[in-house]
Specification:
mainly alpha, 108 residues
């Protein structure tokens, strides 16, 4: 069958997981950016800057998460899996730290 030879078909669960979690992260970043701007006494400019930084963080996280996890993701996307993708997208630096720790072989 043609689907088994198509690399995008094999990555469909990961693509959908990253895309939906990134889509859900846009309003989350807007709310956090608005809250942070108001909490630090700034005006519109500070809220926009916080939102921009959060969006950049999440988009970078989407790239890192997809590169690290996509080829291993084979389970269909459900609500629980989407929650895991969303949490992983916001906590992606932990993925890098644990990946470095797992590959480092310190002598005893």
């Amino acid at each position: 069958m043609i689907h088994e030879s198509d690399p995008l078909w094999r990555l469909r669960h990961a693509i959908l997981g990253v895309a939906l979690s990134l889509l859900l992260s846009v309003p989350i970043a807007a709310m956090i950016g608005s809250w942070a701007g108001e909490a630090f006494g700034g005006g519109y400019g500070l809220r926009v800057a916080a939102y921009g930084v959060l969006l950049l963080y999440v988009v970078a996280g989407a790239g890192v998460l997809f590169a690290r996890v996509a080829r291993h993701e084979t389970r269909p996307l459900g609500l629980r899996r989407l929650g895991l993708w969303l949490a992983s997208l916001w906590l992606w630096p932990a993925l890098l730290v644990t990946a470095r720790g797992a590959t480092r072989h310190d002598p005893p």
